[in-house]
User: Fold these one by one.
Assistant:
Number 1:
Amino acid sequence: MSNMVTITDVVTQGKGITTLRFPFSGGSPGQFVMVWIPGIDEIPMSMSYQGDMAGITVKEVGEATAALSALRPGDLIGIRGPYGRGWDIPPGRVLCVGGGVGMAPLMAALDAIDDPSRVDVAIGARNIGEIIFEERARGRSDDVRVSTDDGTHGVKGTVVALASQMMREKSYDAVLGCGPEIMLRFLLQACKEAEVPCQVSLERLMKCGSGLCGSCVVDGLRVCADGPVFFDHEVKNMSEFGRCRRTASGGKDRV
Ligand SMILES: Cc1cc2nc3c(=O)[nH]c(=O)nc-3n(C[C@H](O)[C@H](O)[C@H](O)COP(=O)(O)OP(=O)(O)OC[C@H]3O[C@@H](n4cnc5c(N)ncnc54)[C@H](O)[C@@H]3O)c2cc1C
Ligand code: FES
């Protein structure tokens, strides 16, 4: 059952991307909550802020995310969770690689790493309007670099190319990645070549969010309970990874 919470803050983060803050505590970095928008739907959202005042960062793609993005301070939403297995943040040097709204669960990881010299960040998006959390990341890391596909901010190119460059320049003990699945597929390949262990956060259609209904299963693993964060050795054999996902009607979509 959802806890009803009152939205206290709404911040426009970028083009079609909005952060909602509300009083809700608990959760570890990389975990997600099921968000109920009364009269519309219930959808999974990563926690972009944790602590007493939690936050989610929503990219508008369809009906539920549009309804969430239109909410204002004082409006109510239902929250269930937190759920899932989040990031396993190792000791040593970490590189966070975020594509677009994929920066949301990575910000929770950055907030949990108390030493700005041991975590670097590569943020990428299609264009400057979709780069989020750059300033917030700069407050948590000594080396934050940005790329855009069209060159409107930072270096021109993909965030995986940027991350590969960083892995050639410095040594890391782990890479944490979140973003479009095709990006994660290339990131995994880049990490394999650089011999750096990698974790990625995956998205699949979710109903219960708590490991019971089976709607998020990929090759026997429940994304909601066994993930959403998976280790490289777990995803490398997933038949759907970087290729397709199940739709609400039971068919399959390309990622
Ligand atoms: C664990 C987890 C964490 C997530 N965290 C975030 C987050 O922090 N911020 C955020 O904006 N979104 C996040 N998502 C994705 C979000 O849940 C979906 O975008 C949302 O459910 C779409 O609902 P809708 O009704 O707006 O769109 P729909 O009408 O359901 O879909 C609109 C379009 O988006 C596509 N779509 C639907 N679901 C997904 C999905 N999971 N991934 C990619 N494309 C999808 C559909 O194929 C369709 O083309 C997360 C998903 C999961 C599983
Ligand atoms: S959403 Fe029900 S098992 Fe994952």
Number 2:
Amino acid sequence: MQKPLKKLPEGFDSFAEDLLRQVETVEGYLAPNEIRFLALLAACPTAEGEILEIGSFKGKSTIILAKAATLSGNSTVNAVDPMTAPSETDPDLHGDASSFADFQKNIETHNVTGNIQFHQIFSYELAKTWNKPLRLLWIDGDHTFEGTKLDFEGFAPHLADKAIVAIHDVLHEFEGGVRVFMENVLLSPNFGACGFCGSIAWAQYVADANKAVQYRGQKLSFYRKLGRLVPFIVFKKELKGFEKKKYKIFRSLVPHGPPDPQKWLNTIQ
Ligand SMILES: C[S@@+](CC[C@H](N)C(=O)[O-])C[C@H]1O[C@@H](n2cnc3c(N)ncnc32)[C@H](O)[C@@H]1O
């Protein structure tokens, strides 16, 4: 368990730059700003509880979370991934049966094996027995609508007061993240501060819905902007040409620049 932190850990910026270089060679799908932001989420607990990653692939985000969590004390990261590719949205394994060997090698090389509690099962299986409060829920598993919804609904009941939920690929052409973020997060009375960093959408869970009222305007503004993206993704398999350009224009209207780390900490409750 890590105590909530209101001040950025000393040397965080240079730590994040160093981390960026360390994970450069680990295959994955995180942009540099997303890596910095994930590190911020792990390094600065907003509540007491566990970190849970859904979807580890070859360990890129697992390593980032584990290393950054050391800045605030106890650094265990719970991670769940069956390590095969049963969903149409899973990364191509290029003929390999599983990404597990690469995952193991990568976490060993980066000296975080001891910090990771890994479950090689589907997230919805883990959800059946999970019973610990979460301070950070990082969803990057099955990107279909059904898959992301199952993940959110399986673990959201365990969010500690003031915990953060972060979903990857909400601004990419997958249905799951954007729809779940809109319906389950932005329209929920129990989520307050929210935003984006690149394609990561995040929001803070507040047990007392009265404390989220002030964020309604901001949440509805995001909801309207994201709503323009949904028809492109739901009804079309692969966006091309003019349709793709239109999608990109609408996407550019969703504020998703990197937040300043200390300002971000000041924003959340
Ligand atoms: C985009 S990758 C994760 C990338 C990783 N977070 C990173 O940053 O490198 C998606 C992963 O989700 C896993 N996955 C798919 N469905 C899942 C499920 N139901 N539960 C857990 N993991 C799942 C896939 O096996 C795949 O490794």
Number 3:
Amino acid sequence: MFLLNDTIAALATAAGSGGRGIIRCSGPNVVNVLNRRFVPQDETAWETCSNARRHTGLWHLKDTGRQVHLDVYLWPNRRSYTGQPQAELHTVGSPPILETILGDLFEAGVRPAQAGEFTLRAFLAGRVDLLQAEAVLGVIDAADHLELQTALAQLAGGISHRLTELRVEFLDLLADLEAGLDFTEEGLEFVSRDVLVERVLSARNELQRLLASTETRTRHAARSRVVIAGPPNAGKSTLFNALLGRSAALVSPIAGTTRDYLTAEVDWHGVALELVDTAGLEETHDAILQVALQLRAGQIQQADLVLHCTAADDARDGHPIAHSDSPQALHVITKADLFPISDLAESSSCIWISAVTGQGIESLKSQVAKLLSAEQEGESHILGSSAARCRDSLEHAIAALSRAAELANAGGGDEFLATDVREALDELGRITGALYTDDLLDRIFSKFCIGK
Ligand SMILES: Nc1nc2c(ncn2[C@@H]2O[C@H](COP(=O)(O)OP(=O)(O)OP(=O)(O)O)[C@@H](O)[C@H]2O)c(=O)[nH]1
Ligand SMILES: [Mg+2]
């Protein structure tokens, strides 16, 4: 299914005009094909240099009699991303020029690359594992800094390293078990039962931690939700508007102005959030307002962070500062302009803001971003797309190791234990791509764009 012996090419930059256009080309025939139309400035270097380097020169465009300046970044041997001769042709980002060069290449026997085929070749050459290949796509598709950071960490091999280490541990374990199988008659034991159970259980715990991290990652794939709550007239909607920098919510001195809740998407310091303004009303017998209360309760329950607002005049008059059942809350004292800051601020752990003077607004944004980015970073070991694929394998591997531990405790035979350990080993192999099927590769690489 995977043809590696033909030379492929595709546009690697976005379609359309641009400052620079790049054509990527990979396969055994790269140098021969380029020789047909590329005239390097330094012919000796072109002909003799066996290291990766940039060659400047001219490309003779077919049928037009014209030439264009071109830089060819050439990896003449296997020490390239795809593990085979590879070139990148950099020139002006003019669609007709790029199309003509691609046409020249195709005429010379090069085949148009399929989606993700360069990365597929890198995977098949052992340059990247499957998680890293998925991370390439993750980098391209990243919607915000957090996703980019996760993708880059995965590309750098963060989770792959740990899984590879675990596979080595399983291989060692298997080797010990299988060595013992050859000497069952002599009663030789290469690893004691206690040690065996301990090794199996510690590997299983590690896999359970990895599984938990893939689950939290999916939960946080969406924006973190920050809910503004507090009593009527606390200035919640005014704060919502001030944080957005526009008048999205209705504001008035009448308590109970906000009935429904309002949401807006924001990015603060690279953290993607959904900001929610809620109704301040308390007890009510009005049926519609009761629905509003339920909506608010739902919003607070789903919140990653609640901004609990108390107006400065209420705080000074001894009204209790609202509490929340949500896991994380920041206490915000609004309308700080109404009182000299020294009255209450110094002794309290609250954030003082004023929508009138702008005091504390930026600082509130950075505190929220800091709190939530710390939380998200702690969880972002793995991209959502990879997590979904890994989860099944991790669950199977955990189940296999649990069976192995039970068997070992119950005095089961080493050959059965070895079967379970091998199963766990294979499951980890599926995650990194040490074991793969054509179907799986097809599914992963077809999501890529052409040229990557
Ligand atoms: N001086 C001063 N007044 C403010 C400030 N923020 C809000 N207010 C006033 O406080 C009143 C209530 O503001 P809202 O933002 O509607 O309060 P809310 O908490 O959304 O009220 P509900 O929607 O009824 O729960 C309005 O008259 C605002 O102009 C502030 O920072 N300083
Ligand atoms: Mg309001």
Number 4:
Amino acid sequence: MPTPSISLRAFGRAEDLDIALDVDLLQADRPALVTALLDCCGGKSNAAFWWSRPVGVRIGALLRLVALTEETDTLGVVLRCVQADCGERFEVELPLAELMARAPAERDARGEHLRIALPGGRFATLRLPTGDDLRDWRTRPHASTADAVAAVIDTLRLDGDLQPGDAAALAEAIAAHDPLVAFSVASTCPACGAEDELPVDLEGLALHRLAQRQRGLLLDVHQLASHYGWTEEQALAVPPRRRARYIALIDNDAGGGLP
Ligand SMILES: [Zn+2]
């Protein structure tokens, strides 16, 4: 179950326009963006709390923010068939409630650790990665992927006799326990019929949707300010549904009146 104790409001207030979402998400400091969004829409003053949450809890909360903001219960995602001679792009709708329910439970977030069986009768105990870990790893670039993976495992390892070659089994165990982090969706390509497990960057998708929302809000304010002379504060004080009706009226004026 997700964590019902964490309260969030919809994204869309004046202060939300200050969060720098108009960036290239591939280059962006995503951990900082996610924390800023959750902190802003979670009442502010609790950034340390959000940094300390497991990555999957943060993604689950970000998805809840999209659901609240867009008043939707599904998330559309465009997938691309991985078959070499196909490459078809197709869209699927992911049910948000089901996704959010897959975030780690709060008891795990508080420190229920993963005990992982390894070859040769060995065991290792790991904790789940948190926002603080992501922030820390970003500041310490590594020469190779193998070095980076070793550093990650070293941070998360609580005990256990690990050997080179355990990384894949450990990553698999974490992914199974915290499925939103390395999320994938089983799909059938509508063009070639291939059945594949396709990766979905849920965090990137949610950030993209909220960035779109922010651009939309700026446009709304621009239109309402230009047309009615409202201030930013006045424009954003109008509830979203009513604001959309004013924008439609302005668009109708610009287009020569109602059809
Ligand atoms: Zn295909």
